[in-house]
Amino acid sequence: MKLKLHHINLCSTNVGAMDTFYRDILLLGDEDPAALPPLNQEKGLVGDVSFVTDGDIQMHLTPRDVLNSFRSGQVVNPLERGHIAYRTDDIKGFMAHLDAQGVPYSDWGSNAVKGWHQVFFYDPDGNVIEVHQIVDTD
């Protein structure tokens, strides 16, 4: 299974100010709309998100949501402090790897992002890590 850094998620109480900062100060730009994650708005698990990029790695600027775990029913909350995300070509193999290593994780499936099977877990310092795979939603 291969992992590649895909995005960094920063949570904020002011997404608009964060968007302006990263665009004006770091000169990040818009991502190709086809490359943006299709958020599952019916589930209400993710609020208004701003997407900026350096051309290789996306940044997802999201509202801080300390109650997200209660609504999602998941232990790991990716919208409390933010997270880093890797894309894999074998999510089931990666989940088996986590199981073999004794690393607990929250399997979000495609509940937050349509067509992405996502799992979230903590590193030893409590930072949230996402690993996802693009999956067929048909």
TrEMBL record:
This is Catechol 2,3-dioxygenase. Residues 4-134 form the VOC domain. One of its GO terms (molecular function) is dioxygenase activity. Gene3D superfamilies: 2,3-Dihydroxybiphenyl 1,2-Dioxygenase, domain 1. The keyword ATP-binding does not apply. InterPro entries: Glyas_Bleomycin-R_OHBP_Dase (IPR029068), Glyas_Fos-R_dOase_dom (IPR004360), VOC_core (IPR037523). It comes from the Bacteria. The keyword Oxidoreductase applies. Keywords: Dioxygenase, Oxidoreductase.
